[in-house]
Each structure stands twice: as C-alpha cells, then as structure tokens.
C-alpha cells in the first residue's frame, strides 16, 4: 500500500512538472537613457548606472524564473550596428528582427527617462517576437538620481511582476 501511495505521489508531481510550460526565451536589450537635460546637467554616472540596472534586471528575471534570458552575444554585432544608427526604442521593428535571429520568443526593451535629477522613471516593454505586439509594459517612477533609487525601482518592478504571476497561478505569457 505504501509503495502505491508513493508511486501515486510521484506520478502527480511528475505530471504537474510536465504540464508546466517552459519559460519564454527572452532577449533583453540593455537599458537606454532618455535625458531631457543632457545639454544642461552633466550625468557622468550614466553608463555605469545603465549597466548596473541592466545587470540587476537580468539577474532578477533569471532568479525569479520569469524568463529564460538568452545570451545576446550571437547578435551583439547586429545590436551595435542598429544602435549606432538609431535608438532601438523606436526602430520600427528592427528589435523584433534581432530577437528573431537570436531565437527568442520575446524581446525586452528598457529605458530610463530622466526629466531632472529629482524626477526619473524606469520603463520596460516586452514584445512577442512572432507578432511584434507588446505583451507587457511596466513603468516605475523614481524620486532621486542615485544608485539606490535605481536599484529599488528595478526591485519593485520585478517584485510586482512576480506577485501578478503568482496571483493568477499560471504563466500569463509575459
């Protein structure tokens, strides 16, 4: 009897795992900055801070198992070439083409809009590679232009994504 119960528990556990859909493959582009005061107020921390939040978001998406974040190295040259010509935030689908070439299901665009040193917001947009449609858009307002405020913004955004996924009990296809 005990053997049958254990076998039944394994079968139930095994079927639950098999029923779970694999994580969507996500190509995450690095954060860009839209700085409305770039000609007036210097921002020497810009590159380091953008790299910091890109890495923090990438690590959190992996840790929380929201996406299978794929390596951008195979399409890095293509990303650099497109970014040299124009912002990838408004390139009329070039970002989706890049993601398709990388073998991704989704692409994540990310930017920080700096209105002033006091008012900023962090934004992400996830697009479906097959359709090009936005499947997730999030924005977090910040007060203060510090490493800590940017990190907290990323942490809040990811925590909100996790909570909404857990509420539904199923992958919403982010």
What would the keywords be for this entry?
44% helix, alpha/beta, Rossmann fold, 174 residues, 6 strands, 5 helices, disordered N terminus, 6-stranded mixed sheet
Q: What's the total number of strands?
A: 6
Q: What is the H/E order?
A: HEEHEHHEEEH
How much helix is in the residues?
Answer: 40-55%
Query: Which band does the percent of strand residues land in?
Result: 15-25%
**Class from secondary-structure proportions:** alpha/beta
Enumerate how many helices there are, as a single number. 5
What does this structure look like?
The protein has helices at 2-19, 46-63, 76-85, 94-102, 147-168, and strands at 25-28, 32-35, 68-69, 106-114, 119-128, 134-143. The chain has 174 residues and is an alpha/beta fold. It has one domain (23-168): ABC-type transport auxiliary lipoprotein component (Rossmann fold, 3-Layer(aba) Sandwich). Strands 1, 2, 3, 4, 5 and 6 form a 6-stranded mixed beta sheet that branches. Helix 2 runs parallel beside helix 5 (147-168). It is globular, with a radius of gyration of 19 Å.
Q: How would you summarize the topology of this molecule?
A:
Elements: H1 2-19, E1 25-28, E2 32-35, H2 46-63, E3 68-69, H3 76-85, H4 94-102, E4 106-114, E5 119-128, E6 134-143, H5 147-168
Parallel strand pairs: 1-3, 1-4, 2-4
Antiparallel strand pairs: 4-5, 5-6
């Amino acid at each position: 009897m005990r053997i049958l119960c254990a076998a039944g528990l394994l079968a139930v556990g095994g079927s639950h795992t098999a029923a779970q859909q694999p994580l969507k493959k996500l190509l995450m582009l690095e954060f860009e900055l839209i700085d409305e005061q770039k000609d007036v107020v210097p921002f020497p921390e810009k590159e380091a801070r953008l790299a910091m939040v890109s890495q923090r978001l990438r690590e959190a998406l992996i840790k929380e198992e929201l996406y299978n974040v794929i390596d951008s190295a195979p399409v890095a040259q293509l990303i650099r070439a497109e970014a040299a010509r124009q912002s990838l935030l408004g390139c009329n689908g070039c970002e989706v083409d890049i993601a398709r070439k990388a073998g991704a299901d989704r692409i994540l665009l990310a930017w920080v809009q700096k209105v002033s040193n006091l008012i900023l917001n962090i934004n992400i947009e996830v697009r479906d590679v097959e359709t090009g449609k936005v499947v997730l858009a999030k924005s977090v307002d910040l007060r203060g232009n510090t490493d800590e405020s940017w990190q907290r913004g990323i942490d809040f955004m990811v925590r909100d994504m996790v909570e909404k996924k857990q509420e539904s009990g199923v992958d919403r296809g982010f």
